[in-house]
Amino acid sequence: MDIRPIHNEQDYEAALARINALMEAEPGSEASDELDILSTLVEAYEAEHHSIEAPDPVAAIKFRMEQAGLSRKDLEPYLGHSGRVAEVLNYKRGLSLQMIRRLHSGLGIPLESLIQPFDKAS
Fold it and tell me: Which superkingdom, per the lineage (predicted)?
């Protein structure tokens, strides 16, 4: 096992290639241990250098709609009447705390996405 810190993109790419080669490792084997260690190093490097910001609330709602095959009508229990749904989806109205709670508990949209600030259209 020859494991080194990931300092740059070249080290990162090499670690990813090695992880790919180790994906079929037998649990409990030395190769499996190497896979676990490399995965941890890659996660730490990605968190620092390749972080992905949470989407804005409307993008998160639209993504969940697409995933679950939901229509605008299906959002009414979470956002209110059809006009309110349209306002939110068109960036004309922000989300209230009650809407955020309903979307999170009812549709499983992460709170981190729902509380992101976004610019309302004028």
Answer: Bacteria
Distance (Å, rounded) from C-alpha 22 to C-alpha 38?
10
According to DSSP, residue 91 is labeled: T
Query: pTM for this structure?
Result: 0.60
- Please say if the pLDDT value at position 84 is more than 80: yes
Q: Give per-residue pLDDT as tens, 10-29.
A: 999 999 999 999 999 999 99
Q: What is the CA radius of gyration of the chain?
A: 21
| Beta carbons within 10 angstroms of residue 6's beta carbon | 21
The single residue listed with the structure tokens 């989407």 is: 55
Record the tokens describing residue 109, joined without a space. 């949209």
The candidate with the shortest Cα–Cα distance to 104, out of 116, 96, 119, 114, is: 114
